[in-house]
Amino acid sequence: MSPRKSLRGFWLAAALLAACAGPGGRRKPTVLFLTDFGAIDGAVAACKGVMLSIAPRARIVDLTHQTPTYDIETAGEVIDQALPFFPAGTVVVAVVDPGVGGARKALAARTKAGHTLVGPDNGLFTRILEREGLDRAVELAEKRYWRDPDATATFHGRDIFAPAGAHLAAGVPLESLGPSITPIRIDLPAARREGDAVAGRVRYVEDPYGNVVTDIPLALLAELGVRVGGELVLEAGGKSHRLPFLNTFGDVGVGKPLALPHSRGPLSFSINQGDFAKAYGLQRGDPVRIRKP
Fold this sequence. Notes:
By secondary structure, this protein is an alpha+beta fold. The protein has helices at residues 3-21, 43-54, 72-82, 126-132, 156-169, 218-224, 276-280; strands at 30-35, 59-64, 91-95, 106-111, 116-120, 134-139, 192-194, 197-206, 211-214, 231-236, 239-244, 257-261, 267-271, 287-291. The protein folds into two domains: 23-177, 3-Layer(aba) Sandwich (Rossmann fold); 192-291, Bacterial fluorinating enzyme like (Elongation Factor Tu (Ef-tu), domain 3). It starts with a helix and ends with a strand.
């Protein structure tokens, strides 16, 4: 390559990086947005409008707006699936809020990984706080950071959480938004060893594929002598199923079931090009036991 072409490529790359960073060379703030609002009305767009009015440089990433309504645990699971892959400084605005307008508080929390979480204090952030640790949390009590000091009782996503998240993305210190608070956490039972078996539960089902993801870490299986390349016995719904424990879907024929390590780490179950959850009658929260054949 000629020096002139090499130099041209350098300046092109620099220009692209500058465009991504925005004016002054600073990276655009990222807001990761999750709700259970759905997408058939203007609720999501209204929240985005509020955020962009306060932080026009913000890059808003829609995590999902299709979590099951009122389902705090599933919403927290989805946040935990995605947020660790976003850079420090990312602000999460999450609104799954069955207690809106009631006694529950509104909070913003900073994790030890440098992510900021904004939403109702109802246990929504339990799983990500367990993963990343809590640095500091505050109650969103400073009304000057609300859309309107007289916020409606039924749309805190638009009137409290969206503006608070935008102010944080724009550089307002967390401590300015209100007094310290200890976030509520919901009980998330952990898998455990029970004699010659490991007891756990279905953590979630991956739609639309029907893959069943458990809360059982591979380290607990190793204690039983169950390792990839062998077999295991799944006990669920009053039945026992002997399955190969392999690396990936294609290690068995089409339509055949298997156990495998999930990409996030725990034990999972699938059918190659099929729906394991449907075939075996499993859903989130169901108890499962694993033992060596």
